Amino acid sequence: MDQQHSGTALAPGQTAPDFTLPATPDQNLSLSDLKGAPVILAFYPADWSPVCGDQMALYNEVLPEFRHFGAQLVGISTDGVWCHSAFAAERKLHFPLLADFEPKGGVARAYGVYRAHEGTSERALFVIDAAGKIAWSHVSPVGINPGADGILGALDEMAAHSPSTGAAS
Amino acid sequence: MSQLNPPVSTDDHAAGPEDAPVTLVEYGDYECPYCGMAYPVLKALQEALGSRLRFVFRNFPLTEAHPHASRAAAFAEAAASIGKFWEAHDMLYEHQDALDDRSLLAYGHALGLDRAVVLAAFEGAYDEKIRRDFRGGLRSGVNGTPCLFINGQRYDGPVDLDTLVDTIERLGDSYA
Fold first, then answer.
1. CATH code (residue B71)
2. What protein family does this chain belong to (chain B) (predicted)?
3. Which residues of A touch B143 (CB under 8 A)?
């Protein structure tokens, strides 16, 4: 049912399109700022919806494991900055949530994970290596929390193949 | 699809015979309301299946969302040191509304657990074991709590007695 969307998600081996999005009402974050270490992009449909909440709450707890690989996690949805800041404060999230709000879903489109009908992104994960290439990607059914095993597996593999970008810390 | 890794070992808290045809593993958080709702269901399941079921509990505290989850888990691990893990586990799920330090110390007293042992648990004596459970859960595909694994396979169905008994009996038959 989601084939036409998930089929278009950027695949491993492709260069991760750079972007700049607001992380707070007065701060932007660019993907290129994070170059040199692995990046986990977690696209999710919306702040506050139950599954997303659980998924982001789970990732919040997994941060030490991600950090072990030197990886930075960023959440992205089409919600605006003020919505993100309220959501992050309420859930005590310790990683940036980027607002893919204007042009709406522009970054989700660039990664092939925009759901035009709903005006949200897919629930999609991308693990990007230190050089800015997509190492792993995964699109879940919107209602299903994908957990963290896929991300951790991808980080493992990456660390095994290029120890210099891996788990130094 | 998601598979339990690491498999159940002597490191785990298990109730029921080691050679039971079915092993149910719960990844749980003592402060999680959904785990609280699953608690009486899993109790009834154990009763219904008797020696055909081995039940294992592993820690998956979501400490940012649940401020008492970490110390509650530590408390149960401390109770395990005097062979009272399940008493502590049950006590916590039966008192989810009172998991502050003072309450945990009182539960410890009721179980005959040394105050110093509980305090040491609060200070991190069992953090490594708890973290090991948590990490194993992540690798196994735990995506929230409670998360159940039946004979090593993640169970994504509803947590109600009838469905669980059905699922497990079908499995048990295929093992018999």
1. 3.40.30.10
2. Belongs to the thioredoxin family. DsbA subfamily.
3. 54-55, 58, 144-148
B93-122 pLDDT tens trace: 999 999 999 999 999 999 999 999 999 999
Q: Residue B16: left if φ>0, alpha if ψ -120 to 50, beta else—which one? A: left
Residues 6+ positions from A121 with CB-CB distance below 8 Å:
A43, A44, A45, A76, A77, A78, A100, A105, A108, A113, A114, A115
Annotated active-site residue in A23, A42, A51, A52 = A52
The yes-or-no answer on residue A83 being catalytic is no
B-chain residues within 8 Å CB-CB of A57?
62, 64-65
Any B CB within 8 A of A57 CB: yes
The CB density around residue B108, as the number of other CB atoms within 10 Å, is 24
For chain B, the domain total comes to 1
- Asked if B143 lies within 8 A of A145 by C-beta distance, the reply is yes
Say if residue B149's pLDDT is above 80.
yes
3-state SS, residue B149: strand
Q: Nearest chain B Cα to A153, which residue?
A: B139
Quote the domain boundaries for residue B78.
22-175
Is ipTM over 0.95?
Answer: no
- Does residue B10 belong to any structural domain of this protein? no
* Paired residues of A75 in beta bridges: A42, A97
* Sequence-ordered list of residues with C-beta below 8 angstroms from that of B125, at least 6 positions apart, any chain: B74, B77, B78, B117
Token pair for B116: 């110093």
Q: Residue B79: name the closest of B17, B41, B26, B121 by CA.
A: B121
